[in-house]
Known about the structure:
Elements: H1 2-12, H2 18-33, H3 40-51, H4 55-62, H5 67-85, H6 104-111, H7 117-151
Helix pairs in contact: 1-7, 2-3, 2-4, 2-7, 3-4, 5-7
Amino acid sequence: MRLIRRTLQLLALIQDSPRRIAMAFSLGVFLGFSPLIGIHTLLGLGLAYFLRLSKIGVLVGVYMNSPWLLVPYYGFATWFGVKITGMPEGTRLPEMSFRQIFGWHFWQTLFHQYQLLVPAVVGSTILAVLFALLAYPLALHALQKLMSSRRHGVPAVE
């Protein structure tokens, strides 16, 4: 709850309309959960500039996907993509323990599973679109409510 409140307070500081702030945030959420891992920030800043949206709003959305979520999210997105596209021919998921991910054999096996790239891209793209479509109305509603209460002199809930 604290993260949501802090995110909204940060977004409310942006000098723009709630609709444009929510749009910037939603774009950032899409980029943050998209398969374009590693270029989220640069792409977000470039699109914010090109679309004349708040760079801060986009970056707040981009960083909703934190390092703690990366492995579970992209693991789930790949599983989801496999459910949609099917398991690629010649791909098998080995049974490995948590300790084994720190060994060379795990990374070698993972590298040879490059066929999972298509399901990973499909799954994470669909999920990114869904998250962005959900983020826009939620952010818009919360921002309108927060900004309205500030205009009428009602202190924001801390």
